[in-house]
């Protein structure tokens, strides 16, 4: 892609102005971010948040569509005669965590908080939306996608099932997530597999209960389950190519209530992750085979409920390279990691990247003392989005739009 080369404006001035413009309006959107933070909402229940997003987008002249994925919002803006279109996605949902930051704008809801920074992602995209509408120089169509329910509930997929990309075709799509531990405002890119697939497996072993003193008259699902826990690890060690990542975590093994009773059943709950589509298929095949064979060898039977969650998030090379160029132009090469490490977490933007080429970008939330709550890991009760990123993230989106949809001539 050579979009970045099609604009002839004096680059440095333009980029400097863009950052300045976003810093100038930062206070307004830091206030929005804190307002959303104070009123967190769980997945598919982002009523207040989506109202706020829709009202703001409408006020700036976007054509607003609601209802995709329930509480999803899409703001569309066209300028000029350009026929190309770009999609940018932010997530809006919070987590079932009791906030412990002690901040003045801490969650007003018991047991719910924005502990993943989706309040910040929404605010960054709103800040970009205002600038794009009022000062953005581009020709084409911008689709700003505010999705519900990223945290495990697949809001991205739901929006797609409701016709997102049929109603709002995009040549490319981008999203951004904050990353504690990386320096504030640094941008991290990666092409290829960047985040793991995440599948959930529930195994129920059916044995024959009995007296703990007479095990020969029973079929013990606890012994079978224990063998399965150990056997599963041999899949990672002996079936998966050592050059590929795989995780099989048995997070729960539940059986029995008394020391002298062999129970009828045992239940195992697994989290299965990989960074490769073929490895994901192999894991499902081997887990299924091993569990049934192990169960049979212990004289019990197994029911396996294998739930495919989020797929591997694969960033497309050309779009990632385009985003890299924009990142370096905006914050300078010293603040850009051109090829960051893959992460074992998962993310439902992966569904969108299966349908439309694009890239998922990380923005440093801060590291170490002096960065306040910014260095605290996401999903922790002490976490907070770093407000200094509102201007940087928004400026990145604005510049990305202008570079992707250049005004010709
Ligand atoms: Zn999260
Ligand atoms: Zn998140």
Shape: elongated
Mean pLDDT over the full residue set: 95
What is the CA-based Rg, rounded? 24 Å
Largest sheet: 8 strands, mixed
Ligand list: zinc ion
Helix content: 25-40%
Structural class: alpha/beta
In the predicted model, the low-confidence regions spanning at least 5 consecutive residues are 1-9
* Intertermini distance: 18 Å
Strand order across the biggest sheet? 1-2-4-3-5-16-6-15
Strand content: 15-25%
Short description:
The chain has helices spanning 11-24, 26-38, 47-59, 118-135, 155-161, 164-167, 221-238, 277-297, 317-331, 349-355, 389-404, and strands spanning 63-66, 73-79, 85-91, 140-147, 172-180, 187-188, 192-195, 197-206, 210-211, 246-255, 261-262, 265-274, 301-308, 313-315, 336-337, 358-366. It has 409 residues and is of the alpha/beta class.
Characteristics:
409 residues; alpha/beta; 16 strands; elongated; disordered N terminus; binds zinc ion
Structure description:
This protein is α/β, with parallel strands linked by helices. Helix content is 36%, strand content 24%. The chain has eleven helices and 16 strands. It has helices at 11-24, 26-38, 47-59, 118-135, 155-161, 164-167, 221-238, 277-297, 317-331, 349-355, 389-404, and strands spanning 63-66, 73-79, 85-91, 140-147, 172-180, 187-188, 192-195, 197-206, 210-211, 246-255, 261-262, 265-274, 301-308, 313-315, 336-337, 358-366. The strands form four sheets. Strands 1-2-4-3-5-16-6-15 form an eight-stranded mixed beta sheet, sandwiched between helices. It has a four-stranded antiparallel beta sheet with strand order 10-12-8-13, with helices on one face. Strand 3, helix 4 and strand 4 form a beta-alpha-beta unit. The longest helix has 21 residues, at 277-297. The model is unreliable at 1-9 (pLDDT under 50). Bound molecules: zinc ion (ZN) (2 copies).
């Amino acid at each position: 892609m050579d979009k970045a080369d099609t604009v002839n404006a004096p680059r440095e001035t333009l980029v400097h102005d863009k950052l300045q413009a976003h810093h100038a309006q930062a206070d307004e959107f830091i206030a929005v971010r804190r307002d959303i933070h104070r009123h967190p909402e769980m997945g598919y229940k982002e009523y207040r948040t989506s109202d706020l997003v829709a009202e703001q987008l409408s006020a700036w002249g976007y054509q607003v569509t609601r209802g995709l994925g329930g509480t999803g919002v899409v703001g569309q803006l066209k300028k000029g005669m350009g026929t190309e279109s770009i999609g940018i996605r932010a997530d809006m949902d919070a987590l079932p965590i009791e906030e412990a930051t002690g901040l003045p704008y801490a969650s007003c809801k018991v047991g719910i908080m924005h502990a993943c920074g989706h309040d910040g992602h929404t605010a960054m995209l709103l800040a970009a939306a205002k600038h794009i509408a009022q000062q953005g120089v581009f020709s084409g169509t911008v689709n700003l996608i505010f999705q519900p329910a990223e945290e495990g509930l697949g809001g991205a997929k739901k929006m797609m099932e409701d016709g997102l990309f049929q109603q709002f075709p995009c040549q490319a799509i981008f999203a951004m997530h904050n990353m504690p531990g990386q320096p504030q405002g640094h941008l991290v890119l990666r092409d290829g597999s960047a985040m793991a697939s995440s599948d959930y497996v529930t195994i129920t072993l059916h044995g024959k209960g009995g007296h703990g003193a007479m095990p020969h008259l029973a079929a013990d699902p606890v012994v079978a389950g224990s063998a399965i826990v150990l056997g599963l690890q041999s899949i990672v060690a002996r079936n998966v190519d050592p050059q590929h990542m795989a995780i099989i975590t048995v997070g729960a093994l539940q059986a029995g209530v008394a020391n002298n009773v062999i129970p009828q059943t045992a239940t195992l709950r697994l989290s299965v992750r990989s960074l490769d589509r073929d490895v994901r298929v192999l894991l499902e095949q081997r887990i299924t085979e091993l569990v049934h064979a192990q169960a049979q060898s212990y004289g019990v039977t197994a029911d396996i409920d294998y739930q495919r969650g989020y797929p591997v998030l694969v960033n497309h090379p050309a779009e990632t390279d385009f985003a890299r160029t924009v990142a370096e132009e905006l914050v300078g090469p010293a603040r850009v990691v051109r090829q960051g490490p893959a992460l074992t977490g998962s993310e439902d933007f992966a569904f969108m990247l299966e349908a439309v080429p694009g890239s998922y970008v990380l923005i440093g939330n801060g590291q170490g003392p002096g960065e306040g709550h910014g260095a605290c890991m996401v999903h922790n009760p002490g976490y907070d989005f770093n407000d200094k990123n509102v201007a940087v993230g928004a400026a990145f989106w604005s510049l990305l739009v202008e570079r992707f949809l250049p005004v010709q001539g």
